[in-house]
Amino acid sequence: MKTSNDLTVGKPIRVILLFTLPIIAGNLFQQMYNVVDTVIVGHILGEEALAAVGATSALYGLFTSIAVGMTNGFSIVIARYFGGRDQKRMSRAVGHTIILSLVIAMVMTIIAALFVKPLLIFLRTPEEVLEQSYNYIIIVLAFFVITMLFNMFSGILRGIGNSFMPLIFLIISTVCNVILDVILVKFAGMGIRGASTATVIAQLVSVILCIVYIRMKCPELHVEKADFKWEHGVAGDLFTTGLSMAMMFSVVSIGSIALQSAINSLGAITIAAHTAARKIGEMLMIAFSPLSVAASTFSGQNLGAGKKERIWQGIKAAFLIAFMIAAMGNVLILVAAEPLVRAVTGSENQELIRLAVYYLHINLPFYFALAILVILRSALQGLNRKAVPLTASAIELIGKFVVAGILVPRIGYLGVCISEPIIWILGGIVVAVDFYGTMKKFRKNEA
To answer: Which of 84, 275, 291, 415 has the most CB atoms around it within 10 Å of its CB?
Structure first.
């Protein structure tokens, strides 16, 4: 089995599919684990413990989005050097990635220790579950370095085109997590601390597996002492690309928190309907995030190789895949929206079902615009265009605050339903204009 995958050769649609499919499988597996984890905590510890874990999801999601964003940014730089066959610079990039990841993890751990409880209070965590929520999240964030390292090693492997092994390590980690959840929560009597401890140990297992695999199978990723010697050019490129991706990811998370606060004001039925509709929508767009990772890696490798016209071929292939998925999702919602909502919620409440179907019917037709946004936003990161993707994310943040503060109080749930399609279109126009200009400049320079 190949330990790396050169995305600068071969039919673009084929190499993108081969790169994307393991990431899609990983996302599906992660979603299945989330359901199982919820069932374990709920069944063993009860509704209060389940609420305590759920109350930390927005905050933990923000920390995780920073880790994923930074390490995805690092992997783009590594992909660029890999595509350009610059082994020396790639080794330096790997060495500096390790340094930066450890420093960022340390800073985030200090922030968590100082501010996590005040943040839980600020997010209006119910008093009856506040202490349990804190006990859960503080253990996970105290070992944030492990989360950072897992995402770092996965990103490094994806940078050389290997998206298969991170999937294998994720599956092993997930199975370990489920087994440890049962052992620590039920049999060891650790309660909610057992659930967070299980997460930390499972992630540590995946980190160890990544290190062993890279040492044994990926000589191109081996680093020497000299690769850790600080070099401003490499470190600056890594940090700015990583920071841009992290801000892009975290801005989206912050916007989602703001929008959720507006939804919460509409009552329990609306909250339940929106939650169900979002779950269905997320399943139908599950390939979009992997395609965006493929777009950034494909663009980075081909930019490094000097194959700039091939970049557009790859992006067209990613669009084709995403549009086919969006079309199938729209057909499914047209014919089976109500049964899907009933299956997810187990409810026969007609108002809940009506609101969930209402949301899906408004949102799904605009998944084509969402595909353009997420693919081009990541492709521009791969092309070293950092400001415009961040601008598109800032539009999303501002848009969700406007919706939360102005639209929802005036037009209710309709404001929530139309907010994301408007944001996707505006953001898509911004990134499409810049991508077109960038490709035009490449062609002009080559001519």
So the answer is: 291
